[in-house]
Structure formats: C-alpha cells, structure tokens
Amino acid sequence: MTTFYSEFQKVLLSVDCIIFGFDLSDSKLKILIGKRNMDPGRGEWSLYGGFVRGDESLDESADRTLRELTGMHDVFMRQVGAFGNLDRDPGERVVSVAYYALINVKDYDEKLRQKHGVEWVNIEKIPQMYSDHNIMVSRARKLMRQKMKTEPVGFELLPDLFTLTQLQRLYEAVGGETLDKRNFRKRIKEMDFIEKTELIDKVSSKRGAALYRFNKKAFTEDKNFKL
Amino acid sequence: MTTFYSEFQKVLLSVDCIIFGFDLSDSKLKILIGKRNMDPGRGEWSLYGGFVRGDESLDESADRTLRELTGMHDVFMRQVGAFGNLDRDPGERVVSVAYYALINVKDYDEKLRQKHGVEWVNIEKIPQMYSDHNIMVSRARKLMRQKMKTEPVGFELLPDLFTLTQLQRLYEAVGGETLDKRNFRKRIKEMDFIEKTELIDKVSSKRGAALYRFNKKAFTEDKNFKL
DNA sequence: CCAAAAGTGTTCCGTCTACACCCATGG
DNA sequence: CCATGGGTGTAGACGGAACACTTTTGG
C-alpha cells in the first residue's frame, strides 16, 4: 500500500455503545453496562465497546460490536461523537467513537446478556463509570431525546405491537415528564402511520387495551411527526 | 509507556474544519475552502484540516488547526462527528473528526487567507469536494442551524456591534427563509441580553441604524432564547 | 363489587403570523 | 425631492395545555 502520511502518529480507535432499552415492567429507560474485565480499569463500570478493525468502517465496527453483545442486527444506531482527550485512557492513547442504539429489550437473549456480564441500569441511576463514559452517556441521551421528539424512532424500543399507554410511558421516560393522556392520544390519532390493530392486549390491564403498530412504509410517504 | 492493547491496529487521525462566516456585504452564509495542495487529491476543493498530534486532544487539535489558518483563538467550535469509511482516503486509512467554527469574517486577516489559499464560498454553492467533505459540510450545517435556533451563538458571526437588520439577514441566511421584520424585532426586544447601544451605524443606511450588542454576562443569568 | 387501567372532547389561553405606513437622511 | 433602509403595533388564527368522567373486567 502506498503511504502518503507516514510521518504522522497513529492512534488506537475504539467504539463504545450506549444501548438504550425500555423496560415495560417498570416503564424506565435503561442502558446496558457491565464491569470492565480488562486492564486498565478492570472492575469499573463501563460501556460495552471494542476496537475498530482495519477492514471495517466506524459504523460497521459499531454494528459488529453491538452484534457481538446482543446477537441483533439491523438495529437503529447513531454516532454520538469522537472522544479524544489525552487522559481518557490511562494506558496508551485511545480515541473512542461513541454510538447509541435503540433496541427492544425482549429481542435480547437473556443468556447472551449474562454471558457478557452486562445489565440493564436505569438511566437516572447510572453509577460512576470508567474514563469518560458518563459523559458519553449524557451526550447520547441528549441526542436520543432530540431524535425521539422529531423522528419516529421510539418504536425501536417497543415490541412490534404496543399499547398507547406503553408508548406514552416511553415518551414520559425519555422526556422526563408526565404527559396528558388525552392530548397524547389526540396527537397519535393524527399520525396515520401509527395503526390501530384488531388485537387486544389483556396482559397489562383487565379491560384490555388496543394494540398499535408502527407502519414504516406509511410513514415515508406521509412524513409529519411531532411529539 | 505501558502498552495494553498492542495487538490492535492503529489509524491516522485528522481534523477537518467547516468554518462558517457571514458576509455582511451580500448577506450570505459562507465557508472557507481551498484547493488541496497535497496528495492524494491534489487540486481538488477541500476543507482545511490537519493531522492530530500525539500530544493534543481532538478539541485542541481542532483549535490549533483553526488558529493555523486564521490566527484566531477562543473561537466557537463544536464537533460534527467522526468520519471513518474505509474508502474515504485513497491513500492509507485516515479517520477524520470534523468540527465547525463560527467566526467574524472581519477578524480574519486577509493576508493570512490568501497565504493559505482559501476562499469564502457561498454555502448554497459549494462545489464537489475531496472525499467525504461535502457530507461533513451538510452535517455541520444542520447542527449549526439547530444550534443557532436554540442558543445565542449567532453573534459569533457578527461584529461586536451590529444592526438589527444585519442580525435578521444572518438568521434568514441560516434558516433559508425570509423573516418578518416586525416579528423579528419583537422577539429581540424581549431578550434583555441583546442590548441597544447609543451608537448609530451610518454605513449601511442613510437614516442610520441603532447598533446592538450581545451581553454574554446578562445571558447566563437570564437564559431564554428562541429564534 | 371494586380496584385498575382504557378510552374519549371541549374550552381557554397564550403564541405566532400576517400585515402597512411614517421617518430620517444622503445624494 | 426622492430613493433607501429604519423603525413601529394590532388583530385574528392557530396550536398547545388543562381538565373529569364512563367503561370494562379480573379477582
């Protein structure tokens, strides 16, 4: 390979994933973190991450890392940014590119989760983490909240079929404030791409709640979203 | 130095700067670009950039790069993101972190500009550029627009003293739509941190226009912005 | 029979938008 | 004296926020 820039120093590149999930049982937004099992920083809480290979783009590396952890593919992911302070890694210099992902918790194989030693932690109760990971999380959260408000990505955090109350609880968890039920439902009704099905969910309530579905196809043609 | 991760491949890191300026003479938003003077891609239009040194953080590297080009410091800069597609650099692999900056055009020494061979180009008329630089610009522009709407950073693009018409033209250029003069001024009047001075600008009009100033101190105490 | 969640409209208020004329001055 | 940009207020439309009761059914 031709080398044009040989006089410059190279650095190690890693990706770190902020994996958001929505816990339907307690209506809390959570992320996956675990105890670091390598030096430096062994034993500290940490995001799941890995090094970027020479044969993959940053996005591909993030995809692969997430797949390693969860076995899932075609997951909604967005870059948070690059983190490159000199002191961010006590060993040698590592620049890390953070990504956030939105996954449906129920699609995540519990076995895999345990194997990797990660757990779902309430976004409001994230412990002190390794290096700059807390900063990554707060930046990711801000971006994710912004995205959720302006684009229909919240459905990535829910099952294919969901009740309106579940959807509302999700938006409440993300926005950090309770919402008015009637106003919320009024807005939903105006979005044709959120379709009511004939199915009834009898788990979460005695009376039963209508199940809804996000029609991605209908959205691309439609295009008006605001929550 | 202790080496923890020696088995992983390292990559070259660069920063690229999207430098926004507002041209008061034609009320257009512009960025600084030049013809690339190194291989690969010699002669193609390109953002100004440079490689990250081993002894500086990413933010510091972006600062330094901007200072090299403009001689300016304490400039408003924000990271756009990391760009790391495999094919983005025809030579060897280079991952680039893009930053955007907002500068007051008149603070930029014309001699320095010519020395570096860069010019101000209307944001609406950016030519095809080297590698993924066009993508960087469009991403930067989106972030910058968002920032301008929600935080008082537009003043970075103007002289310390400015007329309301200049401010309005700036927001029109950024938003891509003309604004109503009376509504615009009404909003300004509600922001106490935009202070009217006793000074009159006689350059841009015969009658003369009041000059305003952004009071940064008053803002941090105040905190309500919406344009 | 009652606890618990689902479902459903209307009114009010504040915000945003549209809109037109007089003023001051340099040339 | 007129062309040019500076400066000012109001009314109507619209969208967002507040708000309470009935329904269904499992236990």
Walkthrough of the structure:
The structure is a homodimer of 227-residue chains. In chain A, strands 1, 2, 3, 4, 5, 6 and 7 form a 7-stranded mixed β-sheet that branches. Chain A has a 3-stranded antiparallel β-sheet with strand order 8-10-9. Chain A has 6 helices and 10 strands; from the N terminus they run E-E-E-E-H-E-E-H-E-H-E-H-H-E-E-H. The radius of gyration of chain A is 20 Å and the shape is elongated. The model of chain A has no long low-confidence stretch (mean pLDDT 95). By secondary structure, the first copy, chain A, is of the alpha+beta class. Helix content of chain A is 29%, strand content 30%. Chains A and B meet through strand 1, helix 1, strand 5 and strand 6 of A and strand 1, helix 1, strand 5 and strand 6 of B. Strand 1 of chain A pairs antiparallel with strand 1 of chain B. The first copy, chain A, binds a DNA duplex (27 and 27 nucleotides) through helix 5.
Summarize the structure.
The first copy, chain A, has 227 residues and is an alpha+beta fold. The first copy, chain A, is 29% helix and 30% strand.
